[in-house]
Each structure stands twice: as C-alpha cells, then as structure tokens.
Amino acid sequence: MDVQVTSGDSLCLMIQRDVMRGSLSHYHMSVLKSGLAGFLADYLKVLHDRLRDIDASDAPRLIDATTAVLRACLQTHPDAIAEARTELDELMIRRVKRYIDDNLFDPNLNVDRICKAVGIARSSLYQLFESAGGIARTVRHRRLRHAHDVLASTNASRVSIAQVAWRHGFEDAKHFSRCFKEQFGYTPSEAREARLYGNPRAVHDDAQPVHAAGRSNWMNAFVDHT
Asked: In b/e form, how buried is each residue of 154-189, taking b as 16+ CB within 10 angstroms?
C-alpha cells in the first residue's frame, strides 16, 4: 500500500472484506458524509492513540468493537447502530469531554452550548453522564483537575487561590476550596505546598499503567480471532 500525503497526517485502517457483513463495493473511492462519519474518525483517532496501552489479549474485544463501529457508520441500519451502541456512546462521551476541555474557561459553558456543539439532545446528554453524577459534575470535575495542575505547578506561587478559583468558574473561593477538598482529599493550599516543599502526599496523578504490546503479538491475536 502506497499513500502520499502532502499536508497533514493520514490514518489508515485495513480490514478483511469477509469480516464485514454485506457489500461494501459502493463505498469504493468514496468520502463518507453521513452524520456518523465524524464518529468513525473519532474512533480511529482514539484507537490509534490508545493501541499501545492495550494488551494483545484484548484484541478479540477490540476487533469486535471496531467492526461494530464500522458497520454502524457504513451500514446505517438500526440493527447495526444498536450493535455498536456502547462504542458510539463512548465516542460521544469523549467528544463532549473534549469540547468541555476546549472551553474550560468559558463562563458561558452550559448544557445548551454543549448539545449544540456536539450535536446531541439534552435528554441523551443527561443519560450519557448519569453514571458520572451528571454533566454539571463532569464539568466541575474537569475544571478542578485543571485547577489542581495549576496549583501544583512550579509557578503556583505567582497566582492566588482566589484567582485560580475565579478562572475555573468558581466565584466563591471558599466554595472552590470545599469542592477541591471533596475531590482530592486535601485543600488547594496543601496542593500548592506539596509542589513547593516536595510533599508527595498531595501530588495528583491521573496516569494509568501502560501495557505495551508488540506488533507481532497484535497480528497473531488478529489472525487467531478472524
């Protein structure tokens, strides 16, 4: 396979024809323009970014999920969409979270703006984030996590806690401190002191362990599954 890209990056997914149910011949040399095309693009980018962190033993589950998303996006039959509902919901959650992160400091960030930007109904948005405590809680959680990173940075002493609170959508510094301690188990002042004085107790880290899988292991797992 020879691909030439003059500007930007190209991400390719090769899959056996017999893995997909139904004919795909009418998609030859075509550009997807359906509403689900964006989901497929999001999924491929997430797959590319996360593949190195997934063990080869998870290949069967990942292959099934990928083919389900492809069928839902290429063959927009209700059954195909229902089969990939879990994967599509996860992609929508990622899309919403990315929009929140991109507009984290916007004081006008609200449910209506999120729904309009990502193309989702209010009821569907509430349902997606119900298990996380709601969309408002998700926004607050992500703002607090970013505020933590600011307070724990080497430049933390240059900005007051009240300024950090205001910048992250909290008009009341005391309310910010209560929410901060509820989420992390310590106060904003302690988070700042941890960085300044090297106290590891209050250093926040969301990093997950990485389980790298070799290319040969992935290929073997794919062959065994198909």
From this structure: eebeeeebbebbebbbbeebeebbebbeeebebbbe
